[in-house]
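Researcher: Here's the sequence for the chain we discussed earlier.
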Amino acid sequence: MRMGLLLLWAFLLLFTKPVLTKVSIGSVTADTGWKFVEKFCFDERGGFFTAEASVNDPRGFFSNLTELLLYADAEDAWPQVVDSSASCQWKANQSNLRGPIGELSTARHWGVKGQRPRWWYIVVSNCQLGRVDVSYNLEFTNEGGLFSHQFGKDEQGIYEMSIVFFAVLTLLAALISALLGVLCLRHMHVKIVVVLLVAVALEDISVMLNLIHCATFAQDGVGRIGAYRGGIFFDMVAQVVFMLLLLLLVRGWPLSTNFLPDKRRLIAAITIVALSYIALFIYVCIGVDPLSTLYYYDAIPGYVIIAIRLLVFAWAMFDVRRTWGYESDALRKRFYVFLGVYVALWFLLMPLLVLIAHFLQSWYRAKIIAGLVFSFNTLTLIVLSWMFRPSKGNAYFAVLDPKARVMFGSNTLQIFPMFDRSSIYDKSDKPAFET
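Model: Thanks. This is the structure I predict for it:
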């Protein structure tokens, strides 16, 4: 029963409340006042806007008193009215284009002049009446072909990037699968590479779902809401799995030891991270302000994840320093130095991305952040896969060989001794080994 309710809840999150689309079909209930409906970013070449709307008013009285308003993002239009406490009538008078809903019973078309990328905001105004129900069908298009016609300026380029990175990640997953076969034949460590393959597969699924959404969007201007949100969800899961992989490696498992200290703390940390991502996913599905053009990490749930990642980063740095100090094999020591730099870059990326995104122009923000996220996620997976490649010229491949371990004293099981943290680097200590 609980599982059924959980699945129903997940379904509702994935398939309700449409995302920003070129074709927007729906209805809105406008009480006396001013009601935002939709927004779209036209590019510098301009585009077209088509509107069809009706009021649930058999007598036609309300239709002529309820208006559809269009605002540009120019300083004398949208910015001065969106947060204003002025009257409804004053806000309506600041619009760039307005017309009664009664004149939109059949579709009307407008051309949008191109100068620079510009957001246009659609509002229903009902300044004189009580509660009014308005149904609408809005269509926005830019000039251009398959990759730009249906997409707002802020989203142009994401479709092409999805194609490229899906191909790269699919190839990478195939290569890691081949690497696993080599490791099994040579009786080497496979567990850590299996976790790496899972992270790559999850990221590949994420990009694939985003590609499905973009491909459909390019045809109908609506896309697939489930695929779009599914892509975000699988990317978040991939982030959690990859973080787990890094935390295992910095603790020396399974390259230097078959013992994993502080398992409860590790499980607790990953659980907290996973729950924070679940909260962010819920926020993306039902909490994002439709007026906002900010990166979804640039909000309170995103700030919480950033704070948690920074804490885990500090913990990971302590662990990799401890593992490096305890390891006596020169090759593995060099590997842990590389791993420390690699982990630092990975953990610090998210705060840097949010900082960059905050200062980008709104019509470039989504595409630039998507490109940076796609690139860095893929690059980090490629680099770690490259470090484990089965090549004669790759010295680090030997760290996956359990026979190449250097024993810690008489500890043939490579188990970390039980010691006090204050004496962690004191090699003169002779602690008892746990067997």
